[in-house]
Amino acid sequence: MAKIPFACGECHRILEDGVDQCPHHPAAKVSADHQGYVLILNPNRSEIAKRLNIAEPGKYALKVNVR
Ligand SMILES: [Zn+2]
Questions:
Q1: Overall number of domains in the chain
Q2: Which domain covers residue 22, as residue numbers?
Q3: Burial (CB count <10 Å: 0-12, 13-18, 19+), residue 17
Q4: From the CA of 1, how far away is ligand 1's center (Å)?
Q5: Which of 5, 15, 48, 63 could, after both became Cys, cross-link 19 (CB 3.0–4.6 A)?
Q6: Does residue 2 form part of some domain?
């Protein structure tokens, strides 16, 4: 069974394997309970990026459930 990576509860970024802290939001909670998956290549041209307040290209979860 594949391990589910954590996602940052603040910016929704999906973190690398084994990483349990967002490099941009060290104080934010991370969660393995997230839904949806988007690959943002060009945040400036992406409606989803604007809606999620994403400024950097990368992998993001649409919804992150933080306990
Ligand atoms: Zn973050």
A1: 1
A2: 7-64
A3: exposed
A4: 26
A5: 15
A6: no
The predicted model scores a pTM of: 0.86
**Which residues line ion ligand 1, judged by CB < 5 Å?**
8, 10-11, 13, 22, 24-25
The CATH number of the domain where 57 resides is what?
Answer: 2.20.28.90
Element (H, E) at 7: strand 7-8
